[in-house]
Amino acid sequence: MEITMRDQVEEALRTVYDPEIPVNIFDLGLVYQIEVKDEGKVLVVMTLTAPGCPVAGSIMEEVNQKVSAIPGVTDADVRLTFDPPWTKDMMSEEAKLELGFL
Fold first, then answer.
1. CATH code assigned at 21
2. From its phi and psi, is residue 39 left (phi > 0), alpha (psi between -120 and 50) or beta?
3. 51 in any annotated domain
């Protein structure tokens, strides 16, 4: 089975953690959109658990660095949104289990 660039982006996002939560941002449901465009351009639209998150800048920078490091990616556009607001319901079953929500 061929590993797509989207698969690689998802894998990279699973290595990014909010320092206060022991679950990666992908499984937390913080990634709303991944779009792989022509010529290796990647758009990631994500949110944070709270608008006033003190590590927002460092998480966004880490996402940008990790996506940019994927072979074939020519541009990583990481955008922050709070629409819709994040809720615990957006987490994967694994994340809910890890954090004791199940």
1. 3.30.300.130
2. left
3. yes
User: What totals of helices (H) and strands (E) does the chain contain, helices first?
Assistant: 3, 3
User: Can you give the residue range of the structural domain that contains 46?
Assistant: 5-81
Rounded to two decimals, the pTM is 0.93
> Which residue type sits at 28?
L
Distance, C-alpha 15 to centroid of its chain: 9
The predicted-structure confidence for 76-99, as pLDDT tens digits, reads as follows 999 999 999 999 999 999 999 999
CA 79 – CA 44 distance, rounded (Å): 6
In sequence order, the 6+-apart residues with CB closer than 8 A to the CB of 59 are: 16, 18, 25, 48, 53
Residue 93 within a domain: no
